[in-house]
Model the fold of this input.
Amino acid sequence: MAQTAAPPPRLTLTDLQGARARHRRERMMRGLFFSAAFLAVVISVAIVASLAGGAMQFLSKVDLGTLWSRGWFPRRNLFDVKTIFVGTLMVSVIAMVVATPLGLGAALYLSEYASRRSRRFLKPILETLASVPSVVMAFFALRFISPEVVQRLFGSDVPIFTITAAGIAVGLLVTPLVASVAEDAMYAVPNSLREASVGLGARRRTTSIRVVMPAAVSGITAALILGLSRAIGETMIVAIVAGGTGGSLFSLDPLKGGQTMTAAITALATGSDQVRGSGPAYESLFFVGLLLFLLTLALNLGAERFVRRVRSQY
Amino acid sequence: MAAVRVETASSAATEQVRRALSGRRADVWGFLFQLLLLFTLVFALAILVVLLFDVARTAIPYLRDRGGEVFASGYSSLPANAGMRTGLIGSIYLGVFVLVLALPLGVCAAVYMEEYAKDTRLTRFINTNIRNLAGVPAIVYGILGLAIFVELLKPLTGPEVEGRSLLAGGLTIALMVLPIVIITTQEALRAVPKSIREAGFGVGATRWEVIRSHVLPYAAPGVLTGSVLSMARALGETAPLIMVGATTGFLATEGGILASLQQHYTSLPTLVFAYVKKPQEEFQQLAAATILVLIVFIFFVNLTAILLRNRYERKW
Done:
């Protein structure tokens, strides 16, 4: 009797594994996704390789003394790095002088003072401002900032194409970025901190300055570093407004035209038909690009560090 | 009796304390501070208004004068013949590159990083790479495009035009916005709660099946918003295109997009750059008109993104 009963069907491991085809497809999709993600590494390597390759060729061709001379005149084989570096520095400092108070003030208002409804309405406008193309801002700088702001403030003998006008325009361009990142950081400060401060009798202003800003300081620093990095890499405004076409003598005067790293690259590229392939002028473009890349990379890594710190805090 | 005496003795002090605690005094500095903050915000927003007004003031009379002719003619060194047709078509072509290349690649990469990748050293390395690529200045992508698409791959990208072709420009722009697409998609995927995935796994679906049927549909609005924003970025960018040769302002349109891939190209912002540099007032007006079209284009794209976000945003 007992022997005639059918043995229960035995499940093996293969029964539980499911269809082979599904497994194959799963592996295929995974491989596809991985290669897409790995592309990021490939692009990074390609960037470094193309910049470093050109820069090495440039350095092997020129006399290293020309890297520290009277000015940046690639056609005359004068590649004074400090000229374009100082130009970039002046533009970015002016930009940050404009963007820091505007960006942080706007961020603080949006995060601490604005009602939920007006915040919902104002933040998208700020983000729209961030999407204004840089050529448009450059046009605005030429038509408005130079004549109406710079020449009014510093006298009409100041030229239209100046480092100052470019710096102000770049500053206005990075303001929304600074405001947006800083606002995210301030908004992320937990309400309990604000409530504790208010509970001790602090006013809103005191709470904003003494509690919220210190609590969000990593994010605010990150916002400023990102803004600075963006200002350094900004190209079209300085190429059009800073007035350094062709070349520039070393100068520390922000009320004159000057050359920056990014503007030097575009000047070389747009005029490259004359120098193409031949002299070191064309390859200097890669050298300046490498400097620019390293500079912004260092700043971005620094900003990333600060952001990570603010994340782990709460 | 004793308690009453204490009360009367300190009533003056109590009154003082009560007044200090009631906070009735006008907080003048606080008010001024708030005004100052409001001013910075309004100032930042006013820039947008002044900019639009300044451009429109020049552009609208000019557009009214020349009418549709501006949209029908391309780049020219004669102000009367110059227009923005080539730029419009070029910008649309570049948008197609972003749509066809950067979006699928970016979404795939983000899916790997969020859904498949374990927290290994390689994963963290890839993630660091993506974040850094997002911060690389646009012009550096231009140099990358110049070195690889224009010089190295010249036979492929455009042997007749020295490699300075639409293909080179489109690939460069696609690479530039790729990290933005990846990061915004990652954020959208992260917002989909774990329970949704677990429900899928619970009925025996493989990871890809869960992603396809559960995760991606729920993340779609976020992915779409990010894509639209990266499209706006691609439309407005000029610097990398100048590096890979969009300065000439010509555009071959015979035979559609496939035939023009290996030919010269231009885009709206590149045309603006070309026109702004010219001294004649007519070109300045034409630049303003081109800018107006470009801004309307980009704001429209941005508005779509914001509306999408507001429409589909959900809290789990």
